[in-house]
Amino acid sequence: MALPDALVRERGVGRGEAAAITRAMVEERLDDFEPAAGRLADSNPHAGDVRSRIDRVRTFLYGAVAWQYESRRYRATLPVQRAPGELAEDPVESAAVRLERRLALAVAPDGALPDRCAGRVLETTLLLALLRAHRTHPEEQRELTCWLGERRAGADPLDALLIDAVLRPQVLPADAADAAAPFADHLVSSTGGRGRLKRSMLHAVLHVLGGLGLNAEDIPPAAFAGALSTFTLANLLAVRIVYAQATDHPHAVSSSERFQLADVLEDGSGRLLWEASAATHLLALNALQSCRPGHPVVGRAVTGLLLARDSGGGMPFLDSQDVWLSAVGGLAFLSRPALRPYAVRMGTFVASWQAPDGGWPFASGIRQTDVDTAARCMEFLHALDPHRYRAHLTRGAAYLAAKAGPEGGLPTWREGDDPDLDMTAGAVLALAPHAAYVRHVTAATRFILDTQRPDGTWDRSWTLSESSVILRAVDALDAASHTSDFNPTRAAAAVARAVARLTATQKPDGSWGRTPDHASDTLSTAQAIPVLARYGPPHVTAAATAHLISRQDDTGRFPAPPDQTGPRPLPFDYPVVADLHALATLTRIQQPRPARSESGAGGTPPPKEQAHAYRFVTAKELE
């Protein structure tokens, strides 16, 4: 009889909970093994022979655990059942305990927090187009065609256009470019300086899928590779090649650019997907196939692409986001005593992927670092053990400081790119504990305050949710409150506007959507609650908390639609993200509420004449 089955019988618990208990027992044995092995080797006169035997035991032990994880033997896939009186009566704590038991099973033996990204229409259509052009894998082509056909009826306008382009190219209207104009305009408005390239990418995709006619004068100009992220470089090369081939202007692109694209794709660090991104990889492969049919890079890539499909057969946007997820998850785990032991292993994993430039990539094994992942990794490692990780934090701080622009804002990828609120707020949270970077924190805080809209919101870029950006900004203002040049009056007004916006846009059931015009969703609600729990009316927080708890399903999860975007503003889905935010929110709800009459944003005592700034105000009063 398997151990979970024995626990079900002996302890009277459900199978999901028995799996969680089993996993915890395995983790305890792993934690006991290393110290015991070290003592045995150090005390034995034949230490070399003993260490060799220990290494063999270690290989078997960790191999067995890895197999259990990969086979999902101890995953909570069944409803989490509770023994009478076992969980706390407090509904918030009860929900948190059920969720933490689920999340404990999501941590891999090496400390990573992996998750599978759901398949998406854009990448699935590009994979089907590539297989057709390559004239291989007819069975997989059939599966992809069925996957797309099943999603056509409920598709949004952009997905419907992409599906029609690849499944029925003969009926692609001559004005397909006009039909795509609303999406192209949205791409331009939502991605700053990369807007023109994003519009060209969309038209290039429609050409690859359905033969959309392109204009030679729209070929985007070449750019200096050193000033671009790896993703932008590959996308730019691909788009230029697609346009040149489609418009019978092959010489508009140099031979060196064609060779450069092939070389870029060759340098994939052995990953299934180049830089973990199916969107970039597939567009580049289709471009290479169009100018150099049968190139060996294309043939070698196809097998990996097919292996990277999700369980339903669709192609995801990313095949991994494990470094970013481990940092976000690790920070949430630190506040839960039952999960904190996992955070130690997660910290080791996160620290191991710091890049030579001092930043971190969002996924293990890719080259491109980014500000968001670096900030989250630093925030986690500082909270976990600032002394142990002081060297990592020092290098990370220098990385972030180098990205700051003259106005204090930070971009996502490269210094000199358009600054982003999310990146800037993350940098404040990461740099605030470092006294040497107070000037950078002050400038970044000023950027946050200067870019808030009158309605209390900030620009969204890598997220679809207003409450996500508001939470990040308010957390940053809290973290910066100890700095010498912090302006408590402006910060208090900014927080008040944000609180007013959230309160005014709360739905009757206590929830929030991505924006006031969108339907309720769990993730947006989970990200709004921490702000209101600190600075909003108690009755608003109570209603929101009740709604959030009601959305937990029988397995402990908090299902939600995707919130992250990429390429911006297209959403992609890692389901564990909603669970991590829900766990952090449930924990923060239980923390003491700061007294408004005694402290300002982040706990800085304001002058007596400023105390009114922390009174709940309406958006009308702030106009």
What do you see in this structure?
The protein has 26 helices and 2 strands. The C terminus is likely disordered. The protein is mainly α. Strands 1-2 form a two-stranded antiparallel sheet. Helix 5 packs parallel to helix 13 and helix 21 packs parallel to helix 23.
Q: What labels would you give this structure?
A:
mainly alpha, 57% helix, globular
Distance from first to last alpha carbon: 68 Å
Strand arrangement across the biggest beta sheet:
1-2
Strand content: under 5%
Structural class: mainly alpha
* Major sheet summary line: 2 strands, antiparallel
Radius of gyration over alpha carbons? 26 Å
* Counted beta strands: 2
Q: Please state the overall shape, judged from the principal axes of the Cα atoms.
A: globular
Unreliable stretches (pLDDT < 50, length at least 5) are 74-88, 597-623
Secondary structure layout:
Blueprint: H1 3-11, H2 15-43, H3 47-70, H4 91-104, H5 121-134, H6 138-151, H7 157-167, H8 176-179, H9 181-190, H10 195-210, H11 230-246, H12 255-266, H13 278-291, H14 296-307, H15 322-333, H16 340-352, H17 371-384, H18 390-403, H19 421-431, H20 438-450, H21 466-480, H22 488-505, H23 522-535, H24 538-550, E1 564-565, E2 571-572, H25 576-589, H26 619-622
Antiparallel strand pairs: 1-2
Helix pairs in contact: 1-2, 2-3, 4-25, 5-6, 5-7, 5-13, 7-10, 9-10, 10-11, 11-12, 11-13, 12-13, 13-14, 15-16, 15-17, 15-25, 16-17, 17-18, 17-19, 19-20, 19-21, 20-21, 21-22, 21-23, 22-23, 23-24, 23-25
